[in-house]
Write a structure and sequence with these properties.
Chains A, B, C, D: This is L-rhamnose isomerase/sugar isomerase. 4 copies of one chain form a homotetramer. By secondary structure, chain A is of the alpha/beta class. Chain A contains 15 helices and 11 strands. Chains A and B meet through α6, α7, α8, α9 and α11 of A and α6, α7, α8, α9 and α11 of B.
Chain lengths: 428, 428, 428, 428
């Protein structure tokens, strides 16, 4: 496999940290053993965990006010794949990439697939784009795509989604994620029910083109880019969609797409209970769809989501897709994605440590104090040594960001990839 | 029919305003006629509209910090009925009362029903109470009722709901509203899925006891009295309940029970579309479940809800229940309920004025400017003369609050009903 | 004065509506007279009211996801001025334009000023831009501008603001509005106190360059483009700034820049009380800084703001600047600005109708029912005839949007101004 | 000193955990030493930390819907002091109690003070109560207290606050906390400015009675019990109050009293910067003023607050008061207060571990990745062994809740204190 980061640099970085890691791992192992937990079992589970990286995430993001590009920005999907390979090489937690069409469109899909293989990367869910107009497009999405009042516009959006499936089939993907910007900015602009009926009809056409071993994920979002209503505004509507479409349709939960104060882990539990949890777009946020690094704002909330996932492990047909979806406006995107992959894994490891038998008993006995402390005990555990050991064992970095910086990857690609001019964002 | 307010006082009050009302009604009629609207048709529809008054609403409400009772507080359901009769006599928009058990429990249901008839009042949906413990109760609801981990506690709550149905049958009610305080205050306290399964099982037992011509309404609420999670947290869960239970089960929407920023009128549209809108608890709020007078904080939002309702009029099986549900902490409860009944009727009248053919065309053509202005034109119309004329024609008051004050009803009952001591609220 | 809209078309449009307007105005006048209000006095006050139009508002806005340009987009400030002249010609409520530098930078300021004069437009507050990087700029604002850790970057931002003052002086402006995007995306990224100290120091340098007859407005915003913290996050910080700077410094309130549920009219009252209300950026929003048309989401909130303004009229040194600040993503920007100007004027007219003597008495007597109904009575009044009459008397349009469409202005400029390609927004 | 918990039970509990604690403490000490941190220094700082317990917190709380009392509820301040002594004995982090008047009023203040001394408890800030009416009170607070329109009502509230100062002087308290429920439920009910002027005047009268070595804390809150506006709605208004009153006046921050999404740690930083941070009411919340156990919902937010406090340590006149303020509706209040005291201490310990030199450098260099990871590294550290060792060294419990349960304190007092009947909460 092609290595983006020099293995000598990586080894040297790991060697510097090996002794401390051993000591910390041993101390943690001893502590966990007291509770009957074998640390190596946890490490093995963590090592088997993977989260998909979004191809668009390796570019610097922006807001409607501005975008401040970094250096060495990827120019196309092949550059992006190399950046993704760095992330996977160092974290060993991101074995797949999720593509966005037409941004990642190429002439030769075989070449793309082979490049992925060479870099040790598979292809996760495909993402369609009907929230932007592309040059030469017949119909504009200004007033909607799959829910547009005009049948030809809807058909164009349907065709695009089917094209995404076709591309995905060639690449080995098994899922299509559909997020639309459709909605309205003013009361009265759209008829809620007719609009949703049009959306459902269009989605049924896409669903009909879905291979038997694929899944389709619909994604809800309360606002932005539409500011009065969105067609798929919350998990309630999202559930109705998945139910209407059929057994291959599931709901995708983006952590930043909810109203303030909403209990997201409970939504996750409900979707699991009713067999419709499709997966996640992980990120963190304080205000809206801030798309910040996962776990950077409210790490306990992330843990509570994973607590539901671990609790449901082993349930029939329970197989949610895990993806990152972030906008990296002020950091090196590779660094942000590495840390986010680590944070997701951290939450998973912490959730694995929850004493579920004890928790269940406290819940049954109505002992909220001990029930909540049981969760907190797991959350408070510094599982860092487990994560680092899992990475190290798999050939990754004990300290991914330090290793990345030591290797000088960003400096290297900055020399190879021409600087992007400081293009402004959307609009004020 | 027994009149709570002296008809002489009422007539005198109306007479003072008759000439102005005629002039305003004529001017408005002329204006509406230009748009092809016959004002008398609107007035007739308004006159046929009714919203139920909550029996508990005629007492002064409070917060966990304190309750500041007013004078002449009703001592029992018979006093409450008289207060409700005042509201109906003056507004002619509140022909029914919604009872809460055990607060309104009486020994002789026939006497209660007859008293209602004598006062011109019918009985709307019954409300059960499993969010408080009653003296002598076997099992406490401290840790839940219909979703409690203990089967005996759940059965007690089921039995209570069935008792409410029995009482309602004797009174002519046709619906049961179930709102529970069940939830949790700390992550881990409750297992979301098991808790919801227990709730669904318990609701199925209640549903089984529901007469064929009854409906059962479940009510969602994001928080309070539980502060981390609630079992029926939003319309998504509420829909799942109604779907699981069967064709007599519907969702109740309380306007104050949602997360910040949520588009409530869209939830209304979704529930209509999927045949599960049961009805409303009308009130207004700025922060949480503030239970303020309907339309007092965001009258345009109330209008947008009614816009959906008028749009759906005539649809099959579309028959939502309209109820007020407010807490009157600083006003005379009778005055607040009268003004709220008027505000609900105002929103209905405004929604009737929406030019739906034009609106539909603007929506189809993606003309958000004219579509939103079409709604706004209706909202901006001062329909006061229509409401006043409808009341006057039906024997009510042109100006309900002025007539009420002129009649001195509060002063009168203050003399008859002993003062309640300044009992403190729940707790800090 | 140069007229953008053919006076013949305008007259014809007005003539069609003249008779109805007379009737409606007369009916409303009669109604108001009963309460001792002379409608012509109100109309005169309304006619004297003006709100500034933002030069950037006449272009189609967008989000970070996409921008969907309309036809006939203005290419530069001279095109923008013509669009603004249309708005002023038809509404007679927008006599001034607020410029944004460097977007509106020109070589010849005299030419610009004269063009404004020819079109009947004056120049309102100047707006600086340190939230975007410009080509050839020495220092990037990626990590801040006036609060940047680097002194040279701060100086660059200071110099730019001083340049804006210089441009404004040439144009007759009397105020500088400073909104920055400075903040942080992650806990720890910035030291709150040091960052704010740097900001204050930089603002003091700008303040020192402010002419004696100018004002400087600082604008607070809770989030976006920064998503964890912003330097000027709320009115509390904004007040501290104005206080630190001195008597020419004031706070600007953008209606969409607050946390959910916040009582904005109360903030307005506090700033008035402490002598620091500088003015407004009017718009409406449901979720965040949605920048929707003023009054389109919550018209009662807009009225409550104006209620505070009218209440404070006549107070010493009370002279807030009124400006629109919106993003028109799905409408014709000229139409949105016209309707928004009308809505602001409507709220003003309604606030003028509040019976303040009665209100004050009800407040004193603790009669919340009558106090709140006193406000509502004013809000419910359909003041449309007053607004239309004020426009008509001043040579504007009875129905601005209808007249605008009848005149075919957008079609005309679409032929003259080359189509903008469907450039994408910032980023996903 | 009188011990509420049998020292034999406590020793036995501690002995069971001694060996594991030693091992964990040693392992953590080794890890910290690598970063140049001496664990014993941290432990010493933690041992010196204290947070006040609210006397009202040891009783079971409730909501407006219901209160579900526990067993062994304290009957009066002497019972409460004993419960507080349990908390202090086991956690060694709560050396003082904060009283609420008139709830904790006694005839003999000397007896009360001596009882505190005997139990090892001092008296923290006094709390006045003008949000409830007391039996026999001349004027009702239904429509406000310190801001009431009636001068006699205001004077009554002023006198009560001065009485609280007098009581506090006898007990050795050095601060008065003023939280009022004043506000309004409907637009128009109150004149914002006049209301605030009345409040300021009243506060000045209280301030005039404040001893020279006392501080007065005003507390802001966005809503509840008032639901449209509150007089002291946010930190901006709170700052103005402290500024108007003088150098002994400071702002109190209750973590649950803010609008959704607000950045509380930044408010803390601003108040520190401008010399007006008085102290905290610690608790946690998800929706409103939920008053949940500190750190139970968002532990990272609590850490970020302490990060500001540790950062400011040593600044002139920086001496914020730390108090818990929670409502324990479903847990044993003693257990909740113990765990909350531990959580506050945990956040403090984590904040002490932040590498401030590194953080400062990353901030200066605009390296948000490493800056935020620096904070996270400290937060992720499991400081449990430090906290336990500090408690053990001071004679407290290694595991406070386990020791408390083992000692059977609740069972004991349940036998001594008569059961409280299941009194209902305020109102629906």
């Amino acid at each position: 496999m092609e290595q983006m980061i020099d293995s000598g640099v990586l080894s040297a970085e790991n060697d510097k940290r090996a002794k401390d890691l051993e000591a910390d791992y041993a101390a943690l192992g001893e502590k966990l053993a007291r509770n009957g937990v074998n640390i190596d079992d946890v490490t093995a589970k963590v090592a088997a965990y993977g989260v998909a990286v979004p191809s668009w995430g390796v570019g610097t993001g922006g807001t409607r006010f501005a975008r401040f590009p970094g250096s060495g920005e990827p120019r196309h999907i092949f550059d992006k794949l190399e950046d993704c390979a760095v992330i996977q090489q160092l974290t060993r937690a991101t074995p797949t990439v999720s593509l966005h069409i037409p941004w990642d469109k190429v002439d030769d899909l075989t070449e793309l697939k082979e490049r992925g293989t060479a870099l040790g990367l598979g292809f996760d869910a495909m993402n369609s784009n009907t929230f932007q107009d592309q040059d030469g497009q017949d119909h504009s999405y200004k007033y909607g795509s799959l829910s547009h009042t005009d049948a030809a516009t809807r058909q164009q959006a349907i065709d695009h989604n089917i094209e995404c499936i076709e591309i995905g089939k060639a690449l080995g993907s098994k899922a299509l994620t559909v997020w639309i910007g459709d909605g309205s900015n003013f009361p009265g602009q759209s008829h809620f029910t007719k609009q949703f009926e049009r959306y459902l009809d269009a989605m049924k056409s896409i669903y009909a083109a879905l291979p038997d071993d694929w899944r389709i994920f619909s994604e809800h979002k309360i606002f932005e880019p539409a500011f009065y209503s969105t067609v798929v505004q919350d998990w309630g509507t999202n559930y109705l969609i998945a139910k209407e479409l059929g057994p291959k349709a599931f709901c995708l939960v983006d952590l930043g797409h909810h109203a303030p104060n909403v209990n997201i882990e409970m939504i996750v539990a409900r979707l699991i209970q009713f067999g419709k949890l499709g997966g996640f777009h992980f990120n963190d946020s304080k205000y809206g769809d801030d798309d910040l690094d996962t776990g950077s704002i409210d790490p306990f909330r992330l843990f509570l989501v994973f607590n539901e996932l671990v609790d449901a492990e082993g349930a029939e047909n329970f197989n949610p897709a895990h993806m990152l979806d972030q906008s990296h406006n002020v950091t090196d995107p590779i660094e942000s994605l590495m840390r986010s992959a680590v944070e997701v894994t951290r939450a998973y490891a912490q959730a694995l440590l929850v004493d579920r038998a004890a928790l269940s008993a406290y819940q049954q006995e109505n002992d909220p104090m001990m029930a909540s402390e049981t969760l907190k005990d797991a959350f408070r555990t510094d599982v860092g040594p487990i994560l680092a050991m899992a990475r190290k064992n798999a050939g990754g970095a004990v300290a991914p960001i330090a290793a990345y910086r030591a290797a000088g990857y960003r400096r290297k690609v900055s020399g190879e990839r021409p600087a992007v001019s400081g293009a402004g964002g959307g609009i004020v």
